[in-house]
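Standup notes, protein team

Yesterday: finished cleaning the Aerophobetes bacterium set.
Today: Nickel-dependent lactate racemase structure.
Blockers: none.

Input for Nickel-dependent lactate racemase:
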Amino acid sequence: MNIRDWKSVELGYGKDCLSVKLPPYCDILKMRYVPPLEDPGEHIEDALSHPVGSSTLEDIIASCKKPSSRVVVAIAVSDNTRPVPYNADSREGILFPLLRRLKKAGVRNENVKIIVATGTHLPTSDTWKKETFGEAITTKYRIIDHDSTSSDLFPIGSVEGTQVRINREFMEADIHIVTGLVEPHFMAGVSGGRKAICPGLINLEATHLFHGVEFMDNPCSTNLVLENNPCHEFALKVARKVRVDFSINVTINGDGNLTGVFAGDLEKSHLEAVKRLKESSVILCDHEYDIVLTQGGKVAVNHYQAAKAAYGTCPIIKKGGMVILVAHNSDEEPVGKEDYKKVLEVLKEKGPGRFTEFIKSKDWQFIPDQWQVQKWDQFFKKIAFFDNLIYCTTGIPREELKKLPGRSGYEFVQGEKIEIDKMVQNAIFYAVRRLRQKLKKDPEMAFVKEGPYAVPLIKEGEKNAGVNV
């Protein structure tokens, strides 16, 4: 294959970047560039001093019917699947300025509980906590991982016919604060805001509804759609019952730099962040593509999380097209939990597009993580065959990746020492050659540079998707 006129591009792979060559006719789909905040510390302080639709933290603390030294504060933070800038040593860190204000207002360090809103995800490691929050926080404050299976969760009553229970440490605090990153989410429309509570701090049984087959099958349960999105609406109802006193969310650009800080009322400040997000994340395309190359982003700590990037190609990949997905999968469990692996086996057994109908049957018993597999099924239904996905990673062992739906990137490299850039490049060569032979012409190809953080849409379908841009 003659590649003299091919162009070099950089591709994110966890904390690293790969360099690969793409055909000259490949469209590079990039989010609108938003420059990072010049003085992030100043913007964080300004957001805290002038919250959207709520009182300041200081006033909220003063309104408590007890001395500030006895006020207990719970702060929900995101886990390792969200690149939220928390670190106390970083100019972009949002957590330390928040803690500093609490202390200045008279709240004692030992009365602050930082709760990692893991939802049903695996607990976070001590190493991750130190890297994410910094020693100035980890050595002075108690950090707790939420456990959705705990028998000691706090009941808040029924929401849409389901009994909901919340992390007790959070509920029993005098003041409830949530934090997060606002980015596209392929089920709830966008992340951040109410998602810190639901699914972040809820019980497993409530997750069965939030991530249930009907919610997942709803066409409004997709990227950037909030109106009539059952996941968003359920999460909002739960968050309202919990009572969130203060919220701080951020937006970041494709380079991971802070672009906006939105503090105050849970709903009002979140909607301000959503407006900013839509301005930059939507990429309008004129047509669908035969081949789409994408990357899992930092969120793709495992195969479970990489589903977001795959699903994100659905609006722009042709029926039966090929997708090359590059994901670092550097978690201790690079595929996901045992339940997830078990349900993936069912997907592989049933075939593309048949899994969702199967789990709608009365004979099916709900299994945690089936929701993510249902999104994989929607993706595979669009590309028609498992082998039309080439999954490139060095994070999942060769034999384990071979068992998963899709074609293993290891098929395109030889030897014991595997170089991810060679794996990806050879996968690109293969896809271009295969489609060229099939179509008798150069295939239409696109590279989604920012992976799951971008939302590529066909122009004529943007309104049908419920996204106002």
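Follow-up from PR in the comments: Residues 40-279 form a domain with the Rossmann fold fold (CATH 3.40.50.11440).
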